[in-house]
Write the structure tokens for this entry.
Amino acid sequence: MTLRTLDQLGDLGGRRVIVRCDLNVPLADGEITDDGRVRASLQTLNQLLDQGARVVVISHLGRPDGQPVEKYSLRPVAQRLSELLGKSVGFVAQTVGDDATAAVDQLEDGQVTVLENLRFSAAETSKDAGERRAFAEQLAQLGDVFVSDGFGVVHREQASVYELPQLLPSAAGTLISAELEVLERLTEKPERPYAVVLGGSKVSDKLGVIEHLLPRVDSLLIGGGMLFTFLAAQGHPVGKSLLEADQLDRVRGYVAEAQERGVRLVLPTDVVVASAFAADAEHTTVAVDGIESSELGPEALGLDIGPDTAAAFAEIISSSSTVFWNGPMGVFEFDAFATGTRVVAQALTEVDGLAVVGGGDSASAVRSLGFTDDQFGHISTGGGASLEFLEGKTLPGLEVLGW
């Protein structure tokens, strides 16, 4: 089947268009610290507004557990959207109900309003399909058509993602279309050499991706907290570093499979270890076979890949034609342990081909380290959704759009 796209909805001038965005941005003291997801929504919104549509934006933010929580309000997001669109954006402190209905009824052609956080209603994420359906029916009353453009949630069976597009004429926005185009390039005949760089804290979060991509890649580079499970699987003591002991056999299996397939599985040769998980902790660089014999002893805690490893990773990345990266190489929030992530990010900017930053913490990392979106081939807005796509899973929010 083929994904239904915006042009298949016809002329949307004067029509009420509900747009499901992913505006789940990080906030600190009510201020947005990374507006990447807001900016990613602009192309679809501008396209609709240019047609004279009456746009109703819906999204979630954080995990308020089905209750109104002020710190998770979308009000600051609406304000930022107004600045980026260069026009007034309304905000309703309600998702469904009389106030929401009145605000939508007052919209004129080419205007936009943002409704309050979807997850202030427990029905949005309910495990009960009937509850989700009832909430989706309330949302559907606010629009004539529905545009799904929140790629970061298409792997979820949620009311605004799965049930709502079944109740109205629906299509994918330009963001989802762009994300899928890139992900297809990563899975169907990617240009070679093809390198995948995986980091983050847990091996268990990446098992499906490793399994699905091993037959498809030339190089698989392992960093982040997950690297210590790989090191332990090879018999190296890892001190107090993050370790998933229940995954050791699985990891050994991947190492063996990589060797059998001729895939270059690259593990760190050195790591940065610290005395504690803290920005100012005492730290040193050691070889991977010397973590517990370092000056920090068996209490050593690995918090970043070492400089030799970072240089080796950078060489492989920059000489590849296709690169997918998901998960930071270390605790990039602390300057002392951000070097590995910074070096990997820099190498991605030098790829002569397609370099994809796989959303989530990776996207936050590159922006917080001073890189700009246009330095990369693509920065995904959906870490979890991207990973599940690369695992070969069916994504409910795409399935209902004809994918």
Notes: Residues 174-187 form the longest helix (14 residues). The first strand starts at residue 16 and ends at 20. The CA atoms of residues 127 and 158 lie 8 Å apart.
